[in-house]
Design a protein that fits this description.
Metallo-beta-lactamase, Chain A, 7 helices, binds zinc ion
Length: about 280
């Protein structure tokens, strides 16, 4: 049975934190260059949010018992969230069950899109030729997913073609993952605030600075300033920046993180390889 934190709070591990495209290179080492992938450990279940290039290291560096089905919760299917999937080790294990959940396609599953993406001439293998057994689940963002003993709440996000936010709760803590969202100017989306209400850890799309956002309106991403407003409105305890711009080097990210901490103490920018226990309260 997968372990979560010592107190049974959700534990997040960030395997990829970047948006848009992977950015390897010497000036991206501190925060990391792989695209979106977050592992979520609960007392009795393990989930993977998104299959960006970060999922490759998740497959290489963690043990997956043969009989453990993998639940992949997709925020949506843009390239930075799916391109790691064919290189995720468990998809090459014969008989491995991989459940793919997708909530932004009006109830349709991710199957048709992934069949189109993973097929010649774009990729040498089709999804059907991979040894793992894929099981696709389409739902409407806003529904609550019931997977084993877990109840995972979801919310629709404002993003081109839509996206899904997720919330994981245990008796000891909670985590919300809200990425690929464009905030509304001047008002909060009440459904997003409700999903994040009182959450221990809020992971949020902070791709742009305010100045960059002005030139990137309509691209479906948000800012640290909007994140702070949402965290305050929802009473979130800890705020974590995610979906970093591929243009933000470590030097830029350090400055952004310092400004974030100054405006909301206890916040941080996600770094690749970082694990966080999402507990109700600090231990001291
Ligand atoms: Zn993205
Ligand atoms: Zn996107």
């Amino acid at each position: 049975m997968p372990a979560s934190g010592p107190a049974g709070a959700p534990e997040l591990t960030f395997w990829g934190v970047r948006g848009s495209r992977p950015v390897p290179g010497p000036d991206m080492l501190l925060y990391g260059g792989n695209t979106a992938c977050i592992e979520v450990r609960l007392p009795e279940g393990r989930y993977v949010v998104d299959a960006g290039t970060g999922i490759v290291n998740l497959g290489r560096r963690t043990l997956w018992p043969d009989d453990e089905p993998i639940h992949l919760l997709m925020t949506h299917l843009h390239h930075d969230h799916v391109t790691g999937l064919p290189f995720f080790g468990p998809v090459h294990h014969k008989g491995r069950e991989i459940h793919v959940w997708c909530g932004n396609l009006g109830g349709a599953s991710a199957e048709a899109a992934l069949l189109a993406l993973l097929a010649p001439p774009l990729f040498p293998l089709t999804l059907e030729q991979m040894p793992a057994r894929f099981i696709f689940h389409g739902f409407h963002a806003g529904e609550t997913l019931r997977i084993g003993p877990d109840r995972i709440r979801t919310v629709a996000l404002d993003h081109p073609s839509g996206a899904t936010g997720y919330r994981f709760d245990t008796s000891a803590g909670s985590a919300a993952i809200i990425t690929d969202i464009e905030h509304r100017s001047g008002v909060q989306d009440p459904a997003v605030v409700a999903l994040c209400e009182g959450v221990s850890t809020l992971v949020y799309d902070m791709m742009f600075d305010e100045a960059e956002y002005g030139a990137s309106r309509g691209w479906g991403h948000s800012t640290a300033e909007a994140a702070v407003r949402l965290a305050d409105a929802a009473g979130a305890r800890q705020l974590v920046g995610f979906h970093h711009s591929p243009n933000h080097t470590d030097a830029i990210m350090r400055g952004r993180e310092a400004r974030l901490v100054a405006s909301r103490p206890g916040s941080r920018m996600a770094r690749e390889g970082m694990s966080l226990l999402c507990a109700n309260q600090h231990d001291g």
